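Readers of this paper often ask what the protein records in our data store actually look like. The remainder of this section carries one protein's record, kept here as part of the documentation.

:::
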Amino acid sequence: MSARLKFTLSYAGFVMLAGALLLAAVWLFLTHVPHPGLIFLPGYKRSVVRDFAPIAVVVLGSLLVFGLLGGWILAGQMLAPLSRITDATRMAANGSLSHRIRMEGRNDEFHELAGAFDAMLARLEAQVSEQQRFAANASHELRTPLAITQTLLDVARNDPTRDDDELVERLHFVNTRAIDLTEALLLLSRADQRSFAREHVDLSLLAEEATETLLPLAEQRGVAIETSGDVTPAVGSPALLLQMTTNLVHNAIVHNLPADGTVWVTVSVHSTRVVLTVENTGEQLTSQLTRTLVEPFQRGSRRVRTDHAGVGLGLAIVRSIAQAHEGALTLSARAGGGLCVSVDLPAAPPRA
């Protein structure tokens, strides 16, 4: 049976029960309850039953018809919002995520359900669009080194006199970038799936390790690195959090001033949260551009192709790792140029 039919029968059943109880009370009153103005004559009860029974049957029949008809109408009105939600669900199942219920009327349970469903559809649509853009960009990025490799091989085949050492060097460079991109995609997938064990981690030690690892690159590019902060206990994957910190420091070094740039790495504890902040000097950034930097394969204001440009997944990986650790990533443009990136994570509980 449909929900509407079940609701109708339930409504009619309650109406019939209430009518039967009411008629039974009237019958008991007429036949058993003494009343000052009522004289019980011989055969009085048989007369009441004979006269009252047909009326009771008619009343119960009328209540049954009224209950079924009224229950059917009321059930249709009550379940109409549910039908709209069902139609929207079918459209979403068929791939149409842009449809919204936008239910009007009083703020009841159905209105709240429709609002929650619309919010879920909006989030799904945004995620699907982001995944489609990511897949398209990843395909493009992976196709580029393959196309370059094919071109180099074609040129070498058509020009036997070409220097093989130069060919091998260029192929090695292209292959290295393809491997870096593949490893970045795998790391991003691992962070999104949250498939890692959680341990106690000191963010200050990770910041020092990332800084020491990238210090030669900073010196090569004329960038000074300043670190500050005390012990910063957090809980998570040491490998992923180190990768997150390394990505932030690497981006701050690469996307900096041509010379005499500075990177500030700070860790701090705020009650139940810990914060890792990486700031750098650099070119002036707009707020609109800053919002797009966490998108995969974005490399600042242009798609640079230097030896240390990365694969365009640095901040996307940072955001995924932060979210996998119940944290948040915040980007803001510095007034004097450059970028300020903050990662807010839950602090580790005190050890027993």
